[in-house]
Amino acid sequence: MVEKIPLRKTIARLDFPAIIAFGNPLLDIVVIVKNDDLLKKYNLKIDGETELCEKKMQELIADLPPETERCTTPGGSAQNTLRILQWLCDETHEIQIGTFYGGVGNDQKGSILEKLIRIAGVDVKYAIHSTLPTGLCVSLAHDSSRSLVANLGAANTYTLDDLKKANPQLDNMKIIYIEGYFITHSLDVAKELVKRAQEKNIIIAFNLSGLYIFQDHQAAICEMVGHAKIVFGNAREMIALAQALNVKYDDVTDIPFLLNSLKRITVDVSSGNSKDWLADDGIFIMTRGGCAPAIIVWGKGQSVQIPPIVPKAPIVDTTGAGDALVAGFLAGVLAHWDPKSCLELGCKVASYIITKLGVTLPSSIPPDLLP
């Protein structure tokens, strides 16, 4: 393993963009609610994710109490991750660390979203769908939990033709990051990206994203897990994945180890004694929330657990915690840090983000966030 050197010093040596991400670009409305009345009315789950039709979404927005604290920010899982990653690597925006791809509408929400993303220093190459509205997500934050409600609109469409028009240049690319929500409508695009990544030895990182997508897209998720080098998920998503793959376990903490073992048996490829932990597939990162540590498993069952980092300010909104952890982790991967350092940074960034309303980023990095 190369000696760990400061993140930004290493990142500055890369060719850019070093990462591209594919997902559902959404405009987020983050609202702090004082009780769970709206969750009950719309049958929403605490810390859950669901989709509503445009009519129901407008009803929900109309039902939001006028006095509630709220903010409008760019959203969507992978888009959030790229924003945070850019902020970590260079908040001055002298370099653009990554490019985001997804579908938006030809409307005011889409224009606002693109403006906000570009202000954050992230390059975007949206596919514009003139007959569909830009996707919207309402995050209802209550105490230390949140419930996400989305109407995907144009975000639910991204075709092979859109990819061809965007024509991402992959010669110097290090990572292609794909959120699970994206493959519910664009599996063919994801598979084409996998094919191109394999030809150029680019890391595929995949996020399981949400429990509810397993109901109708179990086979697609399992296929992407098979292709990905790095897989992120929380405990509930990992349990769903284990069940989908018929993996038997005694304790939830066994799951990433069993998935790692299954991946090695299925792929039957190993770098042997390579010192590069990224040489092999089967890297699984599982978060559990609360006081339970995050776990990473790689190689031949090697692992590290990182206890949750207590925020220095009160928890305000947990909406972007998972996206932030991925951003910190992938920043470490780009810097070629060891697994423990990558996960530690991910946990630190997640701990910071949950003290903000929405995924809102200050103009400068807190001095104690980056090593």
What's the CATH class, please? Alpha Beta
Give a quick account of the main beta sheet: strands, pairing sense, barrel closure.
9 strands, mixed
- What's the structural domain tally? 1
- The CATH architecture assignment turns out to be 3-Layer(aba) Sandwich
What do the pLDDT scores average to?
92
As a percent range, the share of strand residues is 15-25%
pLDDT < 50 stretches: 268-272
Radius of gyration: 19 Å
CATH topology: UDP-N-acetylmuramoyl-L-alanine:D-glutamate ligase
Strand order of the largest sheet: 6-5-1-9-10-11-12-13-14
Number of strands: 14
What helical percentage do the residues reach?
Answer: 25-40%
Structural class: alpha/beta
Helix-strand sequence: HEEHEHEHEHEEEHEHEHEHHEEEHH
What is the count of helical runs? 12
Shape descriptor reads globular
Going by CATH, the homologous superfamily would be Ribokinase
| End-to-end gap | 18 Å
Organism: Camponotus floridanus (Florida carpenter ant)
Pathway: Purine metabolism; AMP biosynthesis via salvage pathway; AMP from adenosine: step 1/1
Subunit structure: Monomer.
Main location: nucleus
Keywords:
alpha/beta; 12 helices; 371 residues; 14 strands
Structure description:
The protein has helices at 7-11, 37-41, 54-63, 77-89, 108-119, 160-166, 180-200, 214-227, 235-244, 255-267, 321-334, 339-353, and strands at residues 19-22, 26-32, 49-51, 70-75, 98-105, 123-129, 135-142, 145-151, 175-179, 203-207, 230-234, 283-287, 294-298, 302-306. The protein has 371 residues and is of the alpha/beta class. It has one domain (7-22, 76-132, 154-353): UDP-N-acetylmuramoyl-L-alanine:D-glutamate ligase (3-Layer(aba) Sandwich), CATH 3.40.1190.20. Strand 10, helix 8 and strand 11 form a beta-alpha-beta unit. Helix 4 packs across helix 11, helix 8 (214-227) packs across helix 9 (235-244) and helix 11 (321-334) packs antiparallel against helix 12 (339-353). The longest helix is centred in the middle third of the chain and has 21 residues, at 180-200. Mean pLDDT is 92; it is low at 268-272. It is found in: Nucleus. Residues 72-363 form the Carbohydrate kinase PfkB domain. Pathway: Purine metabolism; AMP biosynthesis via salvage pathway; AMP from adenosine: step 1/1.
